[in-house]
Design goal:
single chain, 256 residues, alpha/beta, Nucleotidyltransferase, domain 5, 10 helices, 46% helix, globular
Length: 256
């Protein structure tokens, strides 16, 4: 089973009026259950190295929030850029060394709002906020990834015979207090795109991000994908490193 940790960046609720965050991004960090313990241990050792104590204890932040560590805010306000960069790179290296796959979906919130106001996009009129279509696209991307993974282990004869056993399932692990809602999975599975989503476990698990290494790492991925989308012509060494090292594998846009 793959634990699919959801990260998000650019969330502004139903509003699309934040010019500094025109894109809403969701990422799914797929960690095989056999790798979760070692990944957590590596992250814990990383935090002890940088903070002296585990996250949440006195002298350390409760969690690593991408905007804080990248821009030097909150706990990281006194950290020089080099020290913050070393922490970010150490976090990303956990995924790079394992080639841990990440899938992403995104929507341009301004385009969604304009299409909804114009009333000429059935898709935009169907959804109340930009969150719903981008989560739907994310679940579709995850289902496609699992299907390809399951198909890759079959012979040609097995594929032709049909009715293949499903070897790899995906459990979506979202963060409490964020925009992902339990009902999103039900809505997706009832949609035309979700009817054949055989690899998805049909319930979303919710965890506190302060206690979830996978969600914190996925949030970092979402943050750097969003920064790349906003200014694709500028240098983006963190994003480029994730993509070139087979971590970020697919990025699905929602078109309105």
């Amino acid at each position: 089973m793959f634990l699919t940790y959801v990260g998000e960046s650019g969330t502004t609720g139903k509003s699309a009026a934040d010019p500094s965050q025109p894109h809403l991004v969701y990422t799914g960090l797929l960690v095989h259950e056999s790798q979760s313990i070692s990944m957590n241990g590596e992250f814990s050792a990383l935090c002890r190295r940088h903070f002296g104590v585990p996250l949440g204890e006195q002298g350390a932040p409760a969690q690593i929030r991408p905007v804080d560590v990248y821009q030097g805010l909150g706990y990281f306000a006194s950290w020089p850029p080099l020290k913050r960069n070393e922490l970010i790179q150490d976090c990303l290296d956990i995924m790079v060394r394992r080639e841990t796959p990440v899938i992403a979906s995104y929507i341009n919130k301004n385009e969604f709002a304009e299409a909804k106001a114009a009333g000429d996009s059935p898709m935009a009129m169907m959804w109340e906020s930009p969150t719903e279509p981008v989560v739907n696209k994310f679940l579709f991307a995850l289902s496609m990834f699992l299907d390809e993974l399951n198909m890759s282990g079959l012979s040609g004869d097995q594929i032709m015979e049909g009715g293949q056993p499903i070897a790899n399932f995906g459990l979506v692990v979202a963060q409490t207090g964020t925009s992902v809602q339990p009902g999103f999975m039900t809505e997706f599975l009832r949609s035309d795109e979700g009817l054949d989503a055989t690899g998805l476990i049909q319930d979303i698990c919710f965890v506190d991000p302060e206690h979830s290494v996978g969600n914190q790492l996925s949030n970092l991925c979402a943050y750097f994908v969003r920064r790349w989308l906003q200014n694709p012509d500028r240098p983006h060494p963190y994003f480029d490193g994730l993509r070139e090292n087979k971590v970020i594998q697919v990025i699905y846009p929602v078109t309105v």
